[in-house]
Amino acid sequence: MSISFRKECPRWPFAKTGAFLLPEDLLSRAERTPEVVAVSELHEGRPGGEDSSLGNSRTNFEVSPTAVGDGGLLFAKEPTFAENDTPKKPTIGDFLPPYLEYEATSPYGVKTQAQKSVERMCGSLALVGVTESGKRIAKRICCGREWCEECREQSHNRRVARIIPRLLQIDPMGYIVITFPEEVRPLMRNPKTLADLGKRLRRLLRRRGYRKVYCRWHFYGDKSTKHNPHLNVLCDGDYLLPEQLADLKDAIRRMLLPRSMAQLIDKDLVIHYDFTRDSARKMHWIKYAAKATFLERGWDDQLASMLYGFHNGCFAGTWRDPPKWKLTGTDKKYNALARLGEGRHPESGEPVVWDKKPLPWVLLLMENPVHLGAWWYSLPPTRPPPGGDQCK
């Protein structure tokens, strides 16, 4: 039995360079003898054994390491026979979920609304930290998945608090939203493609003189359950003349979508640009860009599995300037959360040293913790042992 691939994998004839490099019909063409088992589907290996969609062909042979194409997508090399066809004995690691899912646990038999498909509950464990002066902070461990109803709001607040210290350095602030045509969205189900597109855009804006850039993907629209990836960009942008704005949009379109592909489908990127100096409007944009849009795993279970480990939300540029605007109204709560996100106490600013061993949250509840927001809690200080005089 033998199997061979074509010397050159068929690609989009109009996408020799750019982010979209996929074989025709999204399948690798293989020539095989009648004895060879047919290729059933495409998958891409992931830690823990999860399967995703587009990637390497799955056969009854072991596949050698893959090569990365120009567009960031993987193309399989020639498969080889397995050295040992004897099934391997499973280990305990094969059954353990990833760290955050394993740590954010509750007893297996508990059935609640927050329970996940891996029979774990979010927020059941917490980390405890203490400052040099003895002040204690607790942080409940959340999974951070967008479709988790239990921690979605808390994760959103933590995400905003994490990016606020840098975005306070931008004034005025520009906001760019880039939406892709429906015809190319199937190609954007691969997280590697999303990461490559974001990197291309950040590099483009940096070359055009923007010093501070933040990008984050939304996977769905506000009022639809249809896959609609669009890129949100916050940058140090100001008013642009019509010809300057047209030039910027043209550069983005040429960088992210090959012109021959746009001509073929007779559609192009839809790009929205706006800017502001108003603090309240900036904060609205920040919270909108950081929000979750993949609200139900059932919308696309396969895509949810593919997005495991995807780093969504990236910075580019230099971020050493002092804050140029302040939070107002109810948004002032993020000042304390930002300090916590940086590992400092919200009041004293002292560094917090965290215990690496999680504790059950139900035990910490007995200490009457004070909620600071985003599942951060203030705990009473540890009582010192009684002195020598008290023991007499």
The largest sheet is: 6 strands, antiparallel
Mean pLDDT: 78
**How many DSSP helices?**
10
Radius of gyration: 25 Å
Secondary-structure element pattern, one letter each:
EEEEEEHEEHEHEEHHEHHEHEEHEEH
Tell me what the CATH architecture of the largest domain is: 2-Layer Sandwich
**Which strand-content bin applies to the residues?**
15-25%
Low-confidence stretches: 1-18, 21-84, 101-119
Query: Helical residue percent?
Result: 10-25%
CATH fold field value of the largest domain = Alpha-Beta Plaits
Q: CATH top level of the largest domain?
A: Alpha Beta
Distance between the termini: 87 Å
Global geometry: globular
User: What structural class should be given to the helix and strand makeup?
Assistant: alpha+beta
Number of strands: 17
Would you give an account of this structure?
The chain has 392 residues and is of the alpha+beta class. It has three domains: 1-96, no CATH class; 98-152 and 339-392, no CATH class; 169-317, 2-Layer Sandwich (Alpha-Beta Plaits), CATH 3.30.70. The protein has ten helices and 17 strands. It has helices at 99-103, 152-167, 191-207, 242-256, 259-265, 279-290, 301-306, 333-341, 361-365, 388-391; strands spanning 3-5, 30-32, 42-43, 56-57, 67-68, 74-75, 125-130, 136-140, 173-179, 212-220, 227-235, 270-276, 314-317, 353-354, 359-360, 370-373, 376-379. Strands 7, 8, 14, 15, 16 and 17 form a six-stranded antiparallel β-sheet that branches. Helix 2 (152-167) packs across helix 8 (333-341) and helix 3 (191-207) packs antiparallel against helix 4 (242-256). The chain is globular and about 80 Å long.
